Structure formats: structure tokens, C-alpha cells
Amino acid sequence: MVQHLDETIKTDGAYNDHLDSTLNNNGGEAEGGTVTDATGKIDGADSFDGTDDYLNIADSTSLDISSAITIEAWVKKASGTPPAGTAITDCEGLQAMNNDLAASYYLANDIDCSATTGWNEGTGFDPIGDSTVKFTGNFDGWGYKITDLFINRPTEDYVGLFGYIVGGEIKNVGVEDVDITGSSVVGGLVGNSESGTTIISSYSTGSVIGGVNCGGLVSQNSISGTINNSYSTASATGGWMLGGLVGNNVLEATIINSYSTGAVSGDGMLGGLVGSNNATITNSYYDTNTSGQSDTGKGDPKTTAEMKQQTEFVDWDFVTNWSIEETITYPFLKWERDYLVSKGRDAYSLQFDRSNSTLYGYVSNNEITASVSTPTNWHYIAMIFDGTNQELYLNGSSTTLTPGGVIGTNSANLTIGGTNGFFNGSIDEVRISAVARSDGWIITGYNNQSAPATFYSIGAESDPPNASPASPASPTQLKNNETTIISNEGYTNETNVKLKASVIDENNPEIITLFFEMALSGGSFNSPATPTTGDSCVAGTEWDSCVSKIWYVTSASGDYTSTPYTGTTNVAGLSNAAAYKWQVKACDDDSACGSWVAYNATIPNFTVDTTAPASVSAPTFGTITSNSIIINKPTEVTEEGSGLYQWQARRDSLTELGFNAIATGSDTDAGLSENTQYVYDAQFNDNAGNTSNYGTSASKYTLAGAPTNLAGAAEQTSIALSVDAFPNHTSDSSGYYFANTTNSTNSGWIQTNSWQDTGLTCNTSYSYTVKYRNGDGIETETISLNKTTAACGGGTPPSFQNPPSQPEPTPENPNNNFSIIINNDDEYTNSKTVTLKLNAGLDTERMAISNTEDFKYASQIPYQKEYQWDLLGNPPSPLLQRG
After folding, report:
1. 483-513: per-residue pLDDT in tens?
2. How far apart are CA 85 and CA 83, in angstroms?
């Protein structure tokens, strides 16, 4: 691109205010304020006001340079009208402001205060204003900065460039690399700011150390003080009440649209933005990664990545006050930089600082600098990157040489004179070349253009014979991600396609344009012998909008004799269900062209299919075990486009089991839990990559595992059975089933894992089985157990182990003792059958009667107060005497 910048501004919105003198057609459009014509270094130039005007050049492939680059321009700073007040030109002048603390001042240039390390016997700079005599004036940095300010006053309070300010204004100033130490109320720019003081569009960097109340920019903002559109990257170190921007914000003070990134460390009451806050903070942020803090309620914490994204800064003015290079820089103030020629630091950029005393060059965010004297004179600036080294030139002389990196590419427009910072001055003869020019080229360009009146003609140049580019090779059709190849006669589910080819040319250097012509599969190509970019369409142009149906992409100037140029274009707006074919041709910048090469003679080359398969029915199920379920492929859906390709099942709307070939009839989901319900649905995709929605779902339980540990506890007339519990046994349809196969009785399906079988016969063997069933009612196999009831007879009555209460007193038993009355207390009987009356408490349940003391042959029977007993004895006794 070559912009002479000597045409009259048209402002018609057609990117033709200034024309590119090369064939790349990178015309420029004046934006913002009014770009005016001015006297240039050579003929006319453009004059920019430093407020809002710039030249905008649309992004193009010829500007997306990736291997080598040279940028050249003539620049001249405008003098400008200084603010009201006394001009400060050096650090001594700053110190002299203490002589009149009510006056107005402004910086006339950048100030170097590195000499302050030797001032005042090592205590350095004496802060402007203190608690006794305060600064009440105004200070305008006018976009200049103060560097290397040193203050070492560890026993003094109210320490900073300004120690104490009341009711004044500080704006448009940066204090860089400060080294400030104080006792309390210590700030990088201001110690104490109060009583309506306003600090606007200012910043600080470096280190601030204090005992109590310390801030990177301001220590104490109080009594209606305001900090607006300002920031600090300075560290704050000390004892208590420390903040990256402000130590203490109090008494109706305000902080708005400001941020900090500096490290904050101390003993307590720390904050990434503000140490202590009892006032107002609005839309202000700090970097939680670099500050080491994570507090909220006194500034919003953001990660470093978030701090480099414009959208994170709510209601900030990125048109007038702030700039940011997305994902690369923190926000910075518009006045900090003048953008001369820029496509962004991540690509390539030439910038001035506001004083225009430092020139910055960027390639892929790699920074190099050069000093500029008398910036109000015309200066010829240039930056070269050869793929390895990055070099700045000033007036034909190399000033710096720094290893660079691969040039980044982005979609940003190229700007001259703006937009992340606006240049106040004139710019002429901007040239961007996709080659690394030699030292001789730069020196010759400077010498020739510095005295244009001495130009002379030596006649027309004679060019060597020009060879046409070779026929393009390796044509490829790709999806939008530029990695997925669309096979010939294949399908794509996108309405745009990337077409790619490579070509070599024996001329060196050379600029090559690849032309890609498309047609419907049943249509015809136009196949022009010498296509032009003017009749063709840029990448991304939609099908209906491209009349010629030819898209182009152009290389940078380079050597393509052995390593081919590979270009890719993008054709958008293709129609669903339409089939296409395409061919490619290469031409150089002298309009020498090779032949048209068809992608593939078998057509269609590809077909667009953006319609997903129809909805899917519920899957069915095959074999089920306790830890796996086989899911059968649902009924295949209708697909009228590219045809079905795969299907997959999904478990519980979360876990996709993976796609299977359409011919695969089932899929196995393993590693599941027993007796657990799982819900499955399925989807299909087609050969174009379209995927249906998930369809109707169906559920299935895994089987319960085989029962384990069937056990029984026997009594004379009952057996208590139990078995191990299994998962999810409380589900409505699952449970346990105990069966007495001897008596043909059972528990039925129950929800507990135990069952009491009663009404049994003593000393009898019984056979039992148990089985489980899952939530779908599918039963397991059974396991069995044989168990015998307790023996009949024997054993003492329960009263011996658990005695009942004593009987109530009666005439027969006045002492309420346990007693047995035989035959109404007759002393003798001649019958072997006697009547027994037994006295016991009301809670007596059972009893045993025996002819022997050991109750060897006794059996337990229900308790009765009167009982007939046969005196069999052992041997039987014909006579029983009481007692």
C-alpha cells in the first residue's frame, strides 16, 4: 500500500478520500472529526487535530501481512496551544511550585526527575504542599509524564508528588516509575486529596511504601474529593489501610471509572483497589491476579484476562477518554499514545507518546522504541521486520534492533492518525510493503524525499521478461474451520465453503492472485482468460451478491519460486440442497495468468445439506444384567438429503454413549449400578454433519443381583428369616419374596429384607427360599435354606428368668406369696389326679409343672389359676403330701 495523502478529502463514505497507488486498492476514508489537507513533505499531506479524526482503511488480505514488513511515513507534530498557567519544563520547576501553592501550572514537556535520588541529603523530592500549607492551585500535565521521582521520608506524613491538596485540580499527567516512601498518608501522585479536589485522567506506576494509609495513586481521598478516569499499576506496601489505587476513600469522596493492577501487601485493611472505603466507588476495578487481593464491596475484582476486555468496563467511554487493545493491553488513557500507522499491536503498529519524543514500534506486541528530538519538524520514520529482527529507523538511520516474532494477523482495519490515541499533526507518504526493505532502500528513500526538489528522471525502467504463474495445485474444499475437508461429491452442513489452492511462480519477488470460480453443478463456468480483482469478489462475499461468481485472494509480495503461495477464500450464502462445482486460476500483478484448473471433473464437487434428520422414536432394549443394558437402535428416521450416517444413545439426558455406524443395531451401556432406573433417548446424524434433536425417551432398570446370606433364627413355633439388603429395594415394584416350600406359605412381595414365619411345629425341619426383583418387576434366581424349629418340652417357666409380679393378697394367700394349693389344701388324696390352684401376678403368661425338681420332662403351657394334674411321678407317687 502507498498512500501519498495529497488528494482532497471527499468524505463521501466510499473509502476513496485517499487512494492506494498500488493495485491492492486499499483506499482510505476520513472518520471522526474533520481530516484537513495540509502542506506535506512531498506535495499535500493530511492534518489531524489530535482529538477524534483519523483515516480508516478497510482490512484486506494485502494488509494481513505475516512474514516480513516495512512501514514508512513522514510525520510532523503540531505545536498546539498550551493550557493557562506557568509552564514547567524540568524537575527543578516542579519543586519550585512550593513557592506559590495557589497558582496554575502545566507541563510543557516530559520531566525526568531521576536526579532527585541525590536531593536533600538523600530524602529526595519535597512534596508539593503539606498539612500546614496546602496546594490549592491547578495542575495540567497536558499529556506529558514525570519519570523516576524519588522521595525517601519514612518519618514524614502526607507524602507524594503532591503532599496535600485542597480544592484544586490535577489532570492529564502520568508519574512513572516512582520510588516513594513515607510514614502515613503516602501516595504515588497525591498524599491527601480533599475538599472538592478533582483528579482526572492521570496515572501512576512504580512503588509506594508507607506505614498507615497508603495508595498507588492517592493515599486519602476525602471530603468530596473525586478521582475520575485514572489508574495505577504501582505497588502499595506497608502496614495498614493499603490499596492499589487509594488507601482510604472517605467522607463523601468519589472514585469513578478507574482501576489498579499493582501488588498490595501489608498487615491489614488491604484492598486490591481501595484499602478502606466509607464513600462512593462506581464502575471501578482491580486485577485480582496481580494485586494478590480478592476483596469486594470496594472495587470489583477481575482476572488479568478480564481486565484486557473492553466489555468488562461498564459505562466507560472508549471513544473520548479510554483506549484498549483487546486481549493485549489494560485500558490506557487516550492522551497517552498518538497512533500514527496501526493495525493493532498484535499485528503491526507505529505510535508516538503524547510528547512525540518517543517513537514506539510493534510487531506481534513486541515493542521497540527510539527517541525523537524536535518533533515539530518533519521526520522520516520506518520500521522493518524481516521475520527475525525488528528495526526502527529515524531519518534514514537505524536506532534500535530487537528480535521480533511472527507477525500476527487480525481483522482490524488499518488506521492513520487514530483511533486508540489521536495524533495532533501532519502525516505524509505512508507506505506498507510486504517485504523487509534494505538499509540502502531506507537511506535512499530518506535522502530522496527529504529534498523532493532535487528529484530527476532517468527514463523508464526496463522490466525482465515475466513468466505466468504455474497452474494451481492441491485444490481443496473445506468447512468453515479450515481443517475439515469436504470430499468430492460430499456434503457440507454449512452455507459457506472455504476454497484453497497453492501455486508457484518463477519470478521473484512476485504478487499472486488466486481466482476461484464457482457454478451450480448443472451450470457452466465463464472461465475468463484474464480475471481481475475489480470484476471479482473478496472473500466472504455471498453467492447472490457476487455477479461474476469469481472470488479472489492476493498474496503479499514474496518469493514463491520453490515454496508455493497458498491462498484460501470464503464463499458465503450458499443454498440448502444445492450442488456446486468450482475451478481455480492464478495470475500475477502484471496480469500474466496460468490455466483454469477444475477441482474435480466428477461433479457435483459438493452439495449443501443444512437440514437435520427428523425426530427420533424411543429406543427399545435388549439383554439386561445387573450392571449393563443393551439399547437397540430406534426406528430409522426419514433423511432426504445426504442420508443417515450414525446414531447414538444418551443416558439420563447427560451422558452420550458415542456415535455408532448406522448399520450397528445396538449399543451396550456398561458399568451401571444394580436395580437402578436409567432413562435413554437417541439421535441420528447425516452424512453432511447435521444432527437431529434427541427423541422420545424410554427407561429401564438394571437387574437386582442374586440374593446373598439367607439366614434364620428358630424358636419352637416360628422361624425368623433375613437376607442381605440390595440397592433401591424400596422402589414401588421391587422387593423381597420369602417362601416356606414345606408348608407352601410365603411372605408375598415385601419391602423389608426379613420375615417371621409363625404357627410352626416344634422340632420340625422346614425348607425356605428367597428371591429379589428389580424396579421393572424382573425376578432373580432363588437361594434356599433348611431350618428346624426348637425342640418340644424342657426348660423352666419364664418366671424363673423374668419373674412376674406377686399376686394380690387373698384370704387363702394373705401374704401375697407365690403359692400352689393342692386339692383345696387337703392333706391327703387317694387319686392320682389333683386340682392345683396357682397364685401369681396378673402379668404372668406361662408356667411349667413337673414331678421332678429339675423340670426335666416339663413343657411350658399358658398360665392358668386352676389346673388338673396327673401325679405320674418318677416313679409315680400314689400319695402327695403338701409341703
Report:
1. 899 999 999 999 999 999 999 998 888 999 9
2. 6
